[in-house]
Every structure is written in structure tokens, then in C-alpha cells.
Design brief:
alpha+beta, 7 helices, 249 residues, single chain, six-stranded antiparallel sheet
């Protein structure tokens, strides 16, 4: 009922998960990321595969060893799908034999794609090809491009409802966490949210406290200046804000 992409950018240290589904609030359960591990758990989902898997891989266990242990312990393993990547780029994946067709997974360098209840194998093949074709894009745009390609190849055979992108850049909290929980065109809405995030939020999140710099940036003047510069640039180009926010009456 879902297709997802799990990826790592060795140049930036970012880990990301992108997911779309004909299932409500898919972003609440599928993505699990730690500073040096990313996991997606889906199909007849067991959230513990995601939480425990990400914790153990982040602590240094090999993804394949974690996968084998989760499969061995879970009586529902034939109905589960799971894939993961660690800080060394090692990938492990599981598609249970009872996952609903079409179901499967593929991997490339620093990226894994997987899906179930799909229109066919071309869905994840298209996602992988789109990711590999765009190494110059920022992580969020690259994940979105992969999901759009998957949708173009048929996506979830039942239709569309929700989508999400989550990205960490070395911290325990996400640098970006966007969710569309219930929408007729979730990927279009996800693209809008990404544009809105870049109007202010991503400028702010880049300045938040970090493990190596607990206070982050405490002088808000550079942030205000950066936001104002972006607003002026949009105005000069005639590009309105894409936010739905309303000012007080």
C-alpha cells in the first residue's frame, strides 16, 4: 500500500526518507531516522521495526543483522516490508512473501527503494532512476523527484492519499519533516509545503541548536535579514508566497 525511498548523501551527511501511499498519514509510521541511520517500515506495518531498527543501526549494528533478527522475531514478518541504510552506505531490505502484489525492493549506491500494492515493478524502478539521474539536487527535491517518477509509473495501485519527506542532517531531530496526511494530490501538496518551508522555516532550522553547538545562532538579525532578502527576491520576480497562512483580521 506504499512506496518509499531511503537515502543518504555522503557529501552533506544527510539521511532522508520519502514515502507516498493510499493510506492515511503514512508519514506518521513509515520514516524513522537517527543521526546515522534511516529506515522505512511499511506494508502490514509494525512500527517497532522502524523504531528499533533505526536505533540499533544508529548504534552500530549492521543493517543486514538487524533485518535478520527482526524477521526471526516477528510472526508477521511475511506481511512486512522494511529497508534501511547506515552511515557507511550499507543497505538491507525485506519484502515478505505475503506482501500484496506488486511488492519488491531495489537498491543503488546510498539509496534503497521499496513498495507494495504497486501498479508493477516499474514503480520503484522509476523512483530509483529518477534519484540516480539528479545528484545535483538538494535531498528534499531529489526525494520528491523520485516519488513523482514512481507516481508517474503507476504508484500505489489503489490511488493516492498521503505523502511525507523527512530529512536529518546529523542531529536527533529532523532538519525538515513535511507530511500530507489526507489529500487528493498529496505529492503536489508536498511540493507546495516544501516551497513554503523554504520561505522561512529552512532558514530558521539551519540556525537551531546542534549537538556540537548547543545554543545554535542566538542573534536573530541574520535570520531576519535572510528572510527579508528572500521576500524581496520573490517580489522582484512576481512570485507570491505559497503559504495558506492568514494574517489577523
Amino acid at each position: 500500500m506504499t512506496y518509499s525511498i531511503v537515502a543518504r548523501d555522503p557529501a552533506t551527511g544527510e539521511f532522508g526518507v520519502g514515502v507516498a501511499s493510499r493510506f492515511f498519514a503514512v508519514g506518521a509510521l513509515v520514516p524513522n531516522i537517527r543521526p546515522n541511520a534511516a529506515v522505512a517500515t511499511q506494508a502490514f506495518v509494525n512500527p517497532l521495526w522502524g523504531v528499533e531498527g533505526a536505533e540499533r543501526i544508529a548504534a552500530g549494528e549492521a543493517p543486514e543483522a538487524v533485518r535478520a533478527d527482526l524477521v526471526a522475531r516477528d510472526a508477521g514478518a511475511p506481511q512486512r516490508q522494511w529497508h534501511a541504510i547506515d552511515a557507511a552506505g550499507r543497505i538491507a531490505a525485506h519484502t515478505g512473501a505475503e506482501c500484496i502484489d506488486w511488492a519488491g525492493h531495489l537498491a543503488g549506491e546510498n539509496v534503497s527503494v521499496a513498495g507494495n500494492m504497486l501498479a508493477g515493478p516499474g514503480v520503484i524502478a522509476a523512483a530509483l532512476a529518477a534519484w540516480q539521474a539528479a545528484p545535483e539536487l538538494p535531498m528534499a527535491d531529489r526525494l520528491l523527484a523520485a516519488m513523482l517518477a514512481a507516481e508517474g509509473a503507476g504508484g500505489d495501485k489503489r490511488g493516492r492519499q498521503s505523502a511525507a519527506i523527512r530529512i536529518h542532517d546529523g542531529e536527533v531531530y529532523p532538519r525538515l519533516d513535511l507530511r500530507v496526511d489526507d489529500h487528493a494530490r498529496p505529492l503536489e501538496e508536498l511540493e507546495r509545503l516544501l516551497a513554503v518551508a523554504r520561505e522561512r522555516f529552512t532558514l530558521f532550522s539551519a540556525r537551531m541548536g546542534r549537538a556540537a553547538a548547543f545554543s545554535g545562532e542566538t542573534d536573530r538579525r541574520p535570520l531576519d535579514a535572510a528572510i527579508a532578502a528572500l521576500e524581496a527576491e520573490r517580489e522582484a520576480m512576481g512570485v507570491p508566497s505559497r503559504s495558506h497562512a492568514a494574517d489577523p483580521d
